[in-house]
Amino acid sequence: MGQQEYRAKVKSVLDGGNSLIQHREELDNHARKRNLDYKQVERIETDVLFPLGLHHFILFPALVIILAVIIPALPLFLLAIPMMYLVEWILIERKVLVYALKFLQDWTKWGIIHIPQAHSNHDKLHQGLVSFHRMPRSVFLGLFAWLIVHWTLRADTLWIELLISGVIYLVMLSVLEVISNAIAAELVFADASRSSLIQVEAWAESYINPLVGVGLLFLLGRDLMAEARDGNPILFALTVLLVLYSVTFVGAGAQLVYSKSRGAGARNAFAKQVVEVLDPNSYSFTRKNDILKLQKNGKMSEHLDGTAIITERDRVSFEMIDSLPSRLDSEEALPPERPNE
Description:
2 domains; three-stranded antiparallel sheet; 9% strand
């Protein structure tokens, strides 16, 4: 009962358009009164922000048979991390991604603004669950790559198909994960002609997810019918499961390692490039009593360097006060003068 009440409290904060960090003291008191420990609070808040669906539970058997899939998956996993670093160097360090975003803005005439997300500066997230939430896309991408190779090549040897599809999967996985990690920097497309706001990350997913999903259904159906007529459908089904659970290990491991080692650094570097090239404004998007308010809160650069002006909706905390700029940072501190007696 206490967990359900705390979950409802968290949802009420998010429904108002506020971040959880602004209400951290209130939420901590609410959890303390219901005898919830740190781990329970962490799991509840992570589940509300990054919920798991049916497509996540399809991948759970991979955890049971991990010893069976780790042998074919280990070489791909070892190659995935350096491949991600290479793609990051190309897209982030060489500023390819930020100039592609600027080209998209000029082409569509959309505005790009900064709206802090609900989990901004969140201090109680279960990183394993967050990675698992994002994993199905990269996993199904691996199965998609193998089905394409299996359909087009029809190689006599299975290992040739797995080798070629593995290389294709590594490239697609690296590009997708680096871009997804970078564009999670709280950027939003503002289309004034249609009166709409859409996160850059959600906009990219709206094209990627249907392509992979429909492609999977089409290729699975076609290959299964072909195997039923002229091949071995049982062997094909076992191969599909082997590929699915192997790329589950690769996708989960690579994503977790990359997010912990380079995720924050690459995201911050891309955010600074966005400020340098696009210099977007920062807004707060809140709702109170069914009244929506989009309010400008300065520049995105001010939020990155901690000089943003605190508005009435923000909850002042000691951490926020400590992060504000001080004259002592740029001027020599002098002792106060003794008053004349």
